[in-house]
Write a structure and sequence with these properties.
The protein is of the alpha+beta class and 250 residues long. The chain is built from five helices and 17 strands. The relative contact order is 0.18. The mean pLDDT is 94.
């Protein structure tokens, strides 16, 4: 039987106590599997927290949406883990330039650029060293991983990507000009750069998952394949199936 470590969001303390009453918690260093109790946001926090530990993570939903999580049940946890299917995910690496210098951060869902004031942002979009849009006037723009394609990207009318697709989604947020541009699907090898035009007058923040850099002047985004994290899903309810089902939902 795999050894376990349980971690939980602040509002899942009761569930954490119940799980630890039924199963030994050997701690984060000695465990074979991390069991995360919470919602999608907590799953992202757990992925970041265990970046250097090479532990598969099995999430149980105690949040609102729980797209990245499994159903919360107390019974037969070891049996579910023994039959679990794996999903491998790679993060995006963001390099954001601001007056404070260069800041790097990782994102398993998306890197998003967002206007900070009432005025629309003006952003020049580069892909692989070539200018693709000279001036995107918008509320913002994002680059999404397949795992994140059903999150903010979907809300911004971006495409849903299969979890094993070697693709990224480049999606505008409320684009005013070019009015008909709906975004692009990119190779996972693509290197995207955003230059913020009139950045003093129209300030923009850059957000990698839940890490924000304010008042950026340029942002570079690329997938980092040197980092691989493993998420575990109940048999028949893996992330592939959820992403496919989402495309046929109301």
């Amino acid at each position: 039987m795999p050894s376990l470590h349980f971690t939980a969001a602040s509002d899942a303390a009761e569930a954490l106590a119940e799980m630890r009453a039924r199963h030994d918690d050997v701690g984060p260093d000695k465990c074979d599997i991390v069991v995360a109790l919470g919602g999608d946001g907590f799953m992202l926090q757990t992925l970041h927290a265990f970046l250097d530990k090479d532990k598969p993570i099995y999430g149980m939903n105690l949040g609102s949406v729980g797209f990245l999580m499994n159903e919360y049940r107390l019974d037969d946890l070891q049996g579910r883990l023994a039959a679990a299917e794996r999903a491998l995910v790679h993060p995006l690496r963001m390099r954001a330039q601001s007056a404070k210098g260069v800041t790097e951060a990782l994102a398993f869902n998306e890197v998003s650029l967002l206007r900070e004031t009432r005025q629309a942002a003006k952003i020049r979009v580069w892909v692989d060293g070539r200018p693709r849009i000279a001036e995107l006037i918008c509320d913002g723009v994002l680059v999404s991983t397949p795992a994140g394609s059903t999150a903010y990207n979907l809300s911004a009318h971006g495409p849903i990507l299969p979890i094993d697709a070697d693709l990224l989604a480049l999606t505008p947020i409320s684009a005013f000009r070019p009015r008909r541009w709906r975004g692009a699907i990119l190779s996972h090898r693509a290197k995207v750069r955003f230059d913020i035009l009139e950045n003093k007058k129209r300030p923009v923040s850059a957000v990698a998952d839940d890490f924000e850099v304010r008042d950026v002047s340029s942002v570079e985004v690329a997938e980092d394949r040197s980092i691989t994290m493993t998420m575990l899903y109940d048999q028949g309810h893996n992330l592939d199936e959820r992403i496919l089902a989402e495309q046929f939902s109301d």
